[in-house]
Amino acid sequence: MNTNIQAVSYDWLMAHARSPEDGMTMAFAGVIQSAGKGEIQPPNLGMGLSVNKFIELLDQYFPGASPEMCDVSDKAESADCLPFRMDEFQDLVELLLEHRSNDSEQTEWLAYAFASGCMGKDHLYADMGLPGRPAVSALLEFHFTALFLKNEGRKMKWKKFLYKQLCDRAEIKACPAPSCSVCDEYRNCFGTEDSAVKVQPDVVVTVA
Predict the structure, then answer these.
(1) What superkingdom heads the lineage (predicted)?
(2) Staple 148 to which of 10, 55, 111, 140, CB 3.0 to 4.6 Å?
(3) Could you tell me if 101 and 146 are in contact, meaning their C-beta atoms sit under 8 angstroms apart?
(4) What is the average pLDDT score of the chain?
(5) Of 51, 30, 53, 34, nearest in space to 42 by CA
(6) Which range of residues forms the domain containing residue 145?
(7) Phi, psi of 72 (to 5 degrees)
(8) Is residue 4 part of a domain?
């Protein structure tokens, strides 16, 4: 089954949101918008999820959105396929799922949202349309606690941290220095996560 997923704006999705201040709701809306605008390149506009799972996500978090967004048909090739780093994406999803705090499908969807956000070029929170690093940290702490704790105290930038985990798992020595503390790139990995990208302003994030 092929599905054409229509690109939509953050505001359009949030107008359908069941809980607009929920952190996961904001993350899903931000990633879907970023994918539609081409700012990130997940496997498809549905964050790499199967059609059925993506529609289920929309129905849970944005009731009424799926009929307008998803044109389910077997008549044509899907229009939302993009050139893509599939292995890299799947490795990120697997890393997150291995550290999930529960087995809920919502946490699985969030893993795909984080992996999708990593397919952009900005800070993770910006590519996910979230208001700042604390919003990313709160979601990771609640839904992927073991992974969050690995970065607690060191506060490496989240996207760099996730990719470093992949390098460590593959036993790839990608860093130029023997340790972070003596590396010339320290500020790039641990500096403040300020972005030139305008994200959703004046929002309150809740995690549940």
Answers:
(1) Bacteria
(2) 140
(3) yes
(4) 85
(5) 34
(6) 10-190
(7) -80, 120
(8) no
**135 beta partners:** none
Which secondary-structure segment (H or E) carries 3? Answer: strand 2-5
Is position 5 within any domain? no
Number of domains in the chain: 1
Which one, of 26, 192, 187, 8, lies nearest residue 113 by Cα? Answer: 26
How high is the pLDDT of residue 188?
73
Look at residues 118, 120, 131, 101 and name the one whose alpha carbon lies nearest to residue 166: 118
Of residues 65 and 197, which shows the higher confidence score? Answer: 65
Which H or E run contains 30?
helix 23-37
Q: In b/e form, how buried is each residue of 90-118, taking b as 16+ CB within 10 angstroms? A: ebbbebbeebbeeeeeebbbbbbbbbbbb
**Start-end of H helices in 83-129:** 86-98, 105-117, 124-127
What type of residue sits at position 38? Answer: G
